[in-house]
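User: Run a structure prediction on this.
Assistant: Running it now.
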Amino acid sequence: MEIICNELSFYPLAENSYQAEERFKTFIRAFRVARTQYDFTHIRFPLNYSEQEVTSTQTLFEWVSSLNNRTLKNLILDLLKPPYTDDLEDEEMERFFESDYSIADQQAPRRDSPLGLPVAYIKTIPSISLNSHNFWQQRKIQISKAGNPSNENTTFYVYNICLESDLTSVEINEWAENSFPEFIDSAELLEKYLRYNKFKTNFLDDFKEQLFEWKNTELKTFKYVLLLMKDVELHPFTGGRGRTENLRNRGKEASKRININDRLSYSIENNIVTFIACKGHYEFH
């Protein structure tokens, strides 16, 4: 999964190379936390990143080339790889070019038409910003959209990461609840979404097959099953979502109602939640 660079956050430009270095260190630390927490593996920079100004006298390419800190230099060079912000699928490209974009807040330090922020919105993923100004520390940046097919001006918010602490914020958790489920395609990402504190998790093969079948056929149900799974840590045997039922009063086996026909079935033993099924009425043994 990728995160999108907010290229406008290079402004105001760094006063010198040292300040630029400190900004990128903060930027990379935030990305590392994002990678750990949500499995972001790549930052999409603009295709013309080499021409991006970093200081009043150096472009990004010139500045990186001049770095004495080889570790930082290699980390940045490793990030400056395709795919780029401009590399969009046909449908995404069409959505991008159907409108003109600007930052709604007049206090923004840069008023150019953004590239990364609307692309992040179209892809339903956060942007990541350099800590060059307090404005870029906002966890939701409002964008104005003009010239769309309805010929009306509209606004939308882009979730944004700037500091390490943003990854535990209400806003980024809100993004995770609403949009992260669409990217879940493995047990590893499922664990990152659940973020259990008390329990470890185990997913039976039949359960995984059923869960991703929900994703492919009924995304709304898939998202609801994920909410039920999160609720297991809070309400494993009674209460909470899904009319929780402690099966046969055996203490370790339980289910939560998905709909009239299907149940989320699981067992808990030795602080391990084993998810057994999410279709039909599972018969425990």
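The chain has two domains: 2-180, 184-277.
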